[in-house]
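Progress note, project year one: complex with 2JD.
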Amino acid sequence: MIPKDHPRYKSLIRRERIADAALKGIVAMEGVGAHGRGEAFDYLIGERTTQSALLAEKTAAALFLNAKNPVISVNGNTAALAAEEIAKLQRASGAAVEVNLFHRTEKRVRMITELLEDAGADVLKGESERLLPLSHDRALCLRDGIYSCDLILVPLEDGDRCEALVNMGKTVIAIDLNPLSRTAKTSSLPIVDELSRALANMTEFCTNLKKDEAEQLISDYNSRSFLESAVKDIVENLSNALD
Ligand SMILES: Nc1ncnc2c1ncn2[C@@H]1O[C@H](COP(=O)(O)OP(=O)(O)OP(=O)(O)O)[C@@H](O)[C@H]1O
Ligand SMILES: CC(C)(COP(=O)(O)O)[C@@H](O)C(=O)O
Ligand code: BAL
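Model obtained:
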C-alpha cells in the first residue's frame, strides 16, 4: 500500500504496476530493467514535463492529425503503465493501435491486447508477418497496420526498429526519457518525457489544436533541438542538484 502523501507516490505506483504486470507475464522481465533505466532519466530531468518536451508533444499531436494512417505501437511496459492513456489518445487522434514486442510470445500479445481492450482501445489483430528488415521479433507486424502506416508512435522503443521504420520513410515519434538512446537520436520526433505524462499531453493537444497552429508546428520543428534541450535541462538540473 503506497500512501498518497508519499513524495514519490507517482513513481512508486508506476513501479508497482510494472512489478504486478511482470508477475503476470504482461511485462517482460527485461522490461523491468528498462523501466528502471527510464526512472533514472526521469530523475535527471526533474520528474516533470519540460517546456521543450511539451512543445514536442504539441508537435506530435499536429503530426498525428495530419497523418493518413497513424499507428500507436504498444509493448508490454506501455500497456502496463498507460493502457487507458493509449485508449484516450486513440480516440483523440483516430490512430490504430498495434501490439509489437521485442520479447514476443503469442500469449503476451493476447494478454496485452486484452489489457488494452479492457481499457477501451480498439486493437488491430491478424496474422503477423516478418515484414521489417530486423533480426529480432519486432520485425513481426501487421501488413495493414505498422507496415503500411505513414506515421507511428513508438513509446519505449528498440533503436533497431526505430531506424528501420525511419528508413522506410515513415514519420516516427518516440517517447523515451533517455535523450542519448538510439531511438531518441534516430526518430523523426523524440519526446523526452515520461510515457504517461507525454500521452496525456498529446491527447489534450489532439483535442484542442487549431489547424493553422498545427501546420506551423509541422513546418517549424527540428528533432535535434528537442534532444539538445533535454541534455541542457539534465545538465542544469545536475549543476543545481545539491543546492
Ligand atoms: N516510463 C517511461 N517513459 C519514458 N521512457 C521510458 C520509460 N521507461 C523506460 N523508458 C526508456 O525506454 C527506453 C526503452 O528501453 P530499451 O531497453 O529499449 O532502451 P535502449 O536499448 O537503451 O534503447 P535503444 O534501443 O533506443 O538504444 C530506454 O531508453 C528507457 O530509458
Ligand atoms: C524491453 C522492452 C522495452 C520491453 O519488452 P517487450 O514488451 O517484449 O517489447 C523492449 O520493447 C525493448 O525494445 O527493449
Ligand atoms: N531494445 C531492445 C534491447 C535493447 O536494446 O536494450
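Residues 102 and 138 are 5 Å apart (CA to CA).
The chain is about 55% helix and 10% strand.
No further modelling is planned for this target in the current period.
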